[in-house]
Amino acid sequence: KIRKMVLIKSILIYTTCFSLLMSLFVFYILGVARYVTDFEENTCDMTYMFEYPQYVRISLGNEIEEQYPRYGLYAYGEGFVTEKLRRMYFSGIPVLFIPGNAGSHEQVRSLASVSLRKSLKGRTQFHFDYFTVSLGKDYSALYGGVLMEETVYVSHCIQKILNLYKTNMQNVVLIGHSMGGIIAKGSILLTSNINASVANIIITLATPHAPTLVLDSTLANYYYNLENHLSKIKDAGTNVISIGGGPRDILVTSLQLLDSTADINVLSTNIPDVWKSTDHLSILWCKQLVLSIVRSLFDSVSVSQRPPRISSKSEDRMQALSYHFYHRVSGKKLHYYKETIQFEFGGEWIEDIRRQYTWSNKNLSKRTSPIYLMIRLNGQPSQLTIDTINLESKDWLFICTASSIQNQSRICNWGWNLTNRTRLLPDPLHRLRKVVDLNLQEIKYPDATHIVVRITPDDLEKYVSVNVDLYSYDARLVPVKSSVPLLNSLLIRPQVKKSDIGHIRYYAVLDDSIDVITVELKPSECTNPKHNAIVELSEPWSIGVTQIQFFTDVDTGLKTMKIQTKSKHSNVSAKLRLTLYPACSYTINVQEGVAHGIAVRFLARAIAFSTTWSDWLLGGLNQLPFITAMFVLSIIPMTCGALAMLISVFLRFLNLTRMYEDYLEELLITSLQHFNWMGRLRHTKDNPKEHEDTRQKIFNHLLLFLLWCFTALPAIPSVLVWAKNFSYNIRLSTEDSLLYQSWIVLVACSTLGWLQIPPNYLGIRSRALASVLYFLGWITLLMGAATRPQFYQYYIPPIVAGATSLITLNFIIP
């Protein structure tokens, strides 16, 4: 009875533990799935062509065309513009687009078409000539053998483009998508025919400035050489802008988009009037982003030069680029702010001493004079946030000294302009929204008494509201609850913050260990049902990395936000900035999300092979290892070593399946013999040791097959490039020499049958071999802990080839 009770108790304990562990595992899987797939929808508008796009081929000369038959240079045109291009007549400012991994030259059409329409609609004194290069849709992100070819060809294209102009054209704008951004920098740094000064602006879109996969030494050496020459870009005064897509881009992470030499590193989620995450391809056609890029180039042109061209002064170009990618606070065209502004006489001055209030023109009659809202500076509290709706004035925020009297009230005659400290804020209702956050203790102007918001009569033509919030910073900090185990989270109530009506701004400072957070805003006591709130996640160590989430009356669910880049500085932390609807009270809950660093990488193209092999042929090759080895080895000098490596993997798989098939047959015969079901097998003796050796051989071959599959991964890009270029050249001449030699060793040892794992480790030589293999294994593991582990990936095949050679020598030497 006692045993029965103990047994029941044990079953209950084990069942409970198992159920708990399974529940935790299921929750973990669900969390991982949400972490990987929980991205905002693609809300970019599509760009459309008004006329059919045309691509006019430009010849680079017979010698270059014969040397690079797979590549081509084109000029983009539409309608009547195409006829001028066919006559090789170019009179604009040259822009060269370079596609990325497996990209097409036709991907330029969104940028080129929008730019063309802007120049025609605006009747500008200048226009841009867009050129694009076709690189044969090479897999430049996976196979380094094509990088230098593409780089040299693009440098020839730049020379040809500049020679097309009758005027003295000396500069070109380079725009590169994905690996095209790397090629753009390489074309002016790693070639001898041009230098860095030939490009005055380089814009990279979703470019991996740090590689994801380095499967051959050629790719690694290209990145190393490029890094060693990057200082020349700064010396030449070239402006570099790196733009990334943010969380939706799963091919290139935000951390890879950070370029150490770039003047501007920015995500599309942080660009004013874009505020949307783009995936790896939509970054080329996202209308909001394309418009920002085109406007920045137009504002970078100096019309005082004849003919107009991109400004020769780097600081002027940076002013235009920064305005559109960082600090745009007013119109769509670059606006220069005056340091001081004289106020108009006769305006209405309104001073409200409340700390939180909302002013609007809802019940105001039409005015012909401006309205000035005054906010008194009295030292307490120290923080001021002003949120405006539909305020279109380009100069609207000032600080002044109220020294004059009007209608028994103090007013200002002039003020210092603070508009350049403001910023645009996205609005769920698509209204023009401007906001400013001021630390009043840091504003140092002599005898300043008031902050002033100016509202012009033109602004009053439509509904305008101004929300003012004076507060202390510490009082607006929201606690961030760390993640806890499941049981604890069920028992402990999360810390929350309750806002009051009229409050606009709240903050949350994130600990350095936090990767993911969840934000919950529950509105209550709303006087207007059409409420909305905005949450911004900023990473101060990367100025251009900010994400935005909306809470509306129809979407109040939990929002997940992920840190895109990791801080390398201990004195800064990521920060949440919450903009609340002042007519609502909110319950704010910010909690650390549970996540792990998950590397999500996909190939940009999937290649499907449909090949049928005859069973008798495969069987024959398997039975004749010498002929098989000669056949596979003969493929190497005729095609490429990578192809032979993949064939050897396939043959090893066949060998493994045949061994397993024989083992099952022997196992079946033994079973029949045991039950005396087959008389002719009655006298056959079962040998358990023989079965044990067979199982060990199958296990050994399975390990070798898995090792072969892992080692052969760097061979896949080479085979893809060889197959794509087969019509031009049957031999892959750009194959990495280190990998090429490794493939020869691995293919020879595998197909000749010399690669055999010894059944035991008896003897000094076997023990020494085991020690060497252990050492090589540890070396491989330590490479993963290096500072830049991706640059050591291509060392795996040579290490495996060395280990294979030692195992083979141990087998063939008696």
UniProtKB/TrEMBL annotation:
GO terms for molecular function: phosphatidylinositol deacylase activity. Its EC number is 3.1.-.-. It is found in: Endoplasmic reticulum membrane. It is a multi-pass membrane protein. It holds the Pfam family PGAP1. The keyword Protein transport applies. Residues 90-299 form the GPI inositol-deacylase PGAP1-like alpha/beta domain. The keyword Protein transport applies. Gene3D superfamilies: alpha/beta hydrolase. The chain crosses the membrane at residues 12-36, 626-651, 702-723, 738-757, 769-786, 792-813. GO terms for cellular component: endoplasmic reticulum membrane. Keywords: Endoplasmic reticulum, Hydrolase, Membrane, Protein transport, Transmembrane, Transmembrane helix, Transport. Belongs to the GPI inositol-deacylase family. This is GPI inositol-deacylase. It comes from Dufourea novaeangliae (Sweat bee).
